[in-house]
Amino acid sequence: MDKKLLTIQDLSCVGQCSLTVALPILSAYGIETCVLPTAVLSNHTMFKQWSYLDLTPEVDNIYDNWKANGFKFDAFLLGYLGKKSLMNLAERAFDEFAAEGRLIVIDPVFADNGKLYGGFDMEYVKGMAHLVRRADIILPNLTEACFMTGIEYKTQYTAEYVEEVLAALSELTNAVAVVTGVELDGKIGEAINCGGKISYVMGEKLPKSSHGTGDIFASVFTAEYLAGKSLEEAADKASVFVQDCLRATQPEHFYGVVFEKILASQRKK
Ligand code: PXL
Q: Which of 23, 26, 139, 246 has its CA 20 to 30 A from that of 261?
């Protein structure tokens, strides 16, 4: 049987992030992608205003019907939740709908560049630091890793500091940690800790960054890893994909990246 993946994150109607990124990317990789939309937003929260419909009250109903239909998922990709109460519901999904040998990937999605995203607080961070114990792979950026471990966020550091963060993460979870946005020697990439074996996947640092690239990284990484690539290969493919998206995006396209163009160009290859 082909693998079925459940991705748990919000649906931002406009903004090239979360479900509108995960669904097309994972599907393009040939993975049956099921969704648990945790909230519907008019657009993501980097625009000047947004609406937010919390779907928490509907989740019980969805789960009851999934149970009755006997659905099980081989992989889970968890992204932006936005509310701490949804963490219990995510755990219920892992408990009730996991197929044998399932993979759980958690991207914490609550902060970047040393700061929490709007609407998040330390209670949420604490909840996420607890939730990650359920993961097989976690994909925090350096800021999120620092918040979850209580280590001071720095912009200038050495590999020793990065490895201190990796060690602290391993106190929270046995999951493989793939820490993104690590900058060393003028390059940017991922620091990976797999059961104490540390590796780095470093690439070119582009002079720009954009919203939604973390969600793109998580989707490509998960798809490549499920397709049998190693952690390092999957991280490298995901980083290169994000870089291609950034290069293809015009500066006036300020709210996301044109990942659709990169997906489409890969299809033609
Ligand atoms: O890209 C992460 C993300 C997902 N969903 C919503 C967001 C953000 C980041 O701010 O606002 C609604």
A: 139
Nearby residues of 182 by Cβ (< 8 Å), 6 or more positions away: 142, 162, 188, 189, 190, 191, 200, 202
- Residue whose C-alpha is closest to residue 8's, from 87, 116, 96, 123: 87
Q: CATH code at 198?
A: 3.40.1190.20
Our measurement of the distance from residue 253's CA atom to the centroid of its chain's CA atoms, rounded to an integer in Å, reads: 22
Q: Which domain holds residue 137?
A: 4-267
32-41, strands of its sheet edge to edge: 52-54, 32-41, 4-12, 73-78, 98-106, 137-138, 176-184, 187-194, 197-204
Task: Report the nearest atom of ligand 1 relative to the CA of 45.
Answer: 11
18 CB within 6 A, ligand 1: yes
189 near 154, Cβ under 8 Å?
no
* CA 38–ligand 1 middle distance (angstroms): 12
Looking at the DSSP assignment, which residues form a beta bridge with residue 179? Answer: 191
The answer to whether the Cα torsion of 73, 78, 83, 85 is positive or negative is positive
Contact by Cβ (8 Å): 139, 217: yes
> 41-58 pLDDT, tens per residue?
999 998 999 999 999 999
Provide the token pair at 75: 């992989």
Nearest CA to ligand 1 atom 8: 44
Q: Which of 7, 8, 14, 17 to mutate to test the pocket of ligand 1 (most atoms within 8 A of CB)?
A: 17
Tens of pLDDT along 143-188? 999 999 999 999 999 999 999 999 999 999 999 999 999 999 999 9
pTM beyond cutoff 0.85: yes
Q: How many domains does the chain have?
A: 1
